[in-house]
Each structure stands twice: as structure tokens, then as C-alpha cells.
Amino acid sequence: MLIHPQFDPVALQLGPVAVRWYGLMYLAGFVAFWLLGRLRAKDAWRGVTADDVENLLFYGIFGVILGGRLGYCLFYQPAYYVEHPLAIFEIWQGGMSAHGGLIGVLVVMALYAYRHGIGFWKLADFVAPLVPLGLMAGRIGNFINGELWGREAPAALPWAMVFPQAGDGLPRHPSQLYEAALEGLVLFLLLWFVSRRPKPAGFVAGLFGVGYGVARFFVEYFREPDAFLGLRAFDLSQGQWLTIPLILAGLFVMARSLRGAKSH
């Protein structure tokens, strides 16, 4: 059985400015997007240029942060934030939703595609493989902070871990690392491999929805539900209920993409 290392959440102190590991993880995700995006943009058939990548990154940062924060407030604690609206801006207190961040990115992509005359699904297929490494970085940030820990695990499990922040001394699943591996690395490799050659418009984006949704749904069985929510209907967590529509939407987009390809 392991003990969480209790990392200092502040990676670097520059006078009054504290640079936190969680912020650095976001930065790592954005850098990965930029580097891999420019690499993908070298394939002319993708229809996205290196300049588009830089513009998408700039606007996407706002989409991720605003969508992630507003999504958390709306999906997880709406009553609290209605009573305390100024708390919405207290991002340093934590509270970001991956589902909300995804919605924010979709809005940014839709606006960018419209303004620049790029097909939305072509753009979505380009962006989809660039997202998982950012998700992975975010989950590593959760692990460093010792937050969003897992459910109780058998003490005999070699990687079972005690999170002192939980305050109960129980061995738990390091579910943040499970998510980093499945939603991050595995999904990235899958999407990168599938998108090496042209696919029907929307197929890769739909696969992202299904892949992320299935990975998140599975890992939620090992992640401790939010204390203020607990488990919902059918003993599913809020994260699982939010993920079901994403899986269904991904399947629909993939089927629509393949159906459209056959009709041409």
C-alpha cells in the first residue's frame, strides 16, 4: 500500500506570484496541442493550416477555461452558485468540468469554422486527436493536488494509495492516474492512429466522443463520487450520467459519417 506523496501544489514561487502545478499541467496540454497541431497541419488534405492551429489554440484556451468553469457550476453545484454568483469567478478554489470544457471547445470550433469557411466536421476531426493529452495533463494535475481520489481499494492491491486529504486513512484507487491513462494516453494513440489517413467527415470526432465517454464511464466506478452529490439514479455518478449523452452522440456522428460516405 502506498501513501500519496503530498506534493506541494505550488511548483514555483516568484515573489508574490505562485505558479501552481495544476496551471502548469494546463500549459503542458496547450503546448502539446500546438506542437501536434502544427505537425498535423503539414498534411494539406486536412484543410487546416499552421495559422489555424495557433488561432484555435488562442480561442480554445478561453473555451476550455470558461466552459470548464461554467460547466462545473451548472452540472455539479447550480444551487450554490445561484446563491453565490461571485464564487463563479473563484477559479483558484478549484472546480472545473471536463464535460463543460468540451462544450466550450465545441462552441469555439463552431464559431471558427463559420468565420473561416472550414467545414465544422473537418475541423472537429482535426482537433479531436489533439485533446486527449490535455486531458491526461489535467488528471496528472489532479493527482499532484491529491484531489478527486478514488474509491476504497483492497489493501492488497499493490498500487492502492492512502490520500491524507481524504481524512480517513483508507487505501484507495489512484483513479486520477487511471483517467490519465485511458482518457489521455490510450485515447490519444487510438485517435492518432485512426486519423493517419482520410476518414469520412465527422468519424474521428465521433470516435473521440465514444472513446472518451466509455473511458470516463468505466473509471467512474473507481472514482469517489463528489461528497455533495453522492451516487445518482441506478447508482451511477454524476460524471457517468453526463457521459451517457456524449457516447450516444458520438455513435450517432460516426454512423452519420459512414452513411454519408456510402452515399457518395
UniProtKB/TrEMBL annotation:
The chain crosses the membrane at residues 20-36, 56-79, 91-114, 126-144, 177-194, 201-219, 239-258. A 1,2-diacyl-sn-glycero-3-phospho-(1'-sn-glycerol) binds at residue 139. Its EC number is 2.5.1.145. The gene is umpA. It comes from Sutterella megalosphaeroides. GO terms for biological process: lipoprotein biosynthetic process. HAMAP family: Lgt (MF_01147). This is Phosphatidylglycerol--prolipoprotein diacylglyceryl transferase. One of its GO terms (cellular component) is plasma membrane. PROSITE patterns: LGT (PS01311). The keyword Membrane applies. The lineage of its organism: Bacteria, Pseudomonadati, Pseudomonadota, Betaproteobacteria, Burkholderiales. The keyword Transmembrane applies. NCBIfam families: lgt. PANTHER family: PHOSPHATIDYLGLYCEROL--PROLIPOPROTEIN DIACYLGLYCERYL TRANSFERASE, PROLIPOPROTEIN DIACYLGLYCERYL TRANSFERASE. It is a multi-pass membrane protein. Catalyzes the transfer of the diacylglyceryl group from phosphatidylglycerol to the sulfhydryl group of the N-terminal cysteine of a prolipoprotein, the first step in the formation of mature lipoproteins. Belongs to the Lgt family. Pfam families: LGT (PF01790). Pathway: Protein modification; lipoprotein biosynthesis (diacylglyceryl transfer).
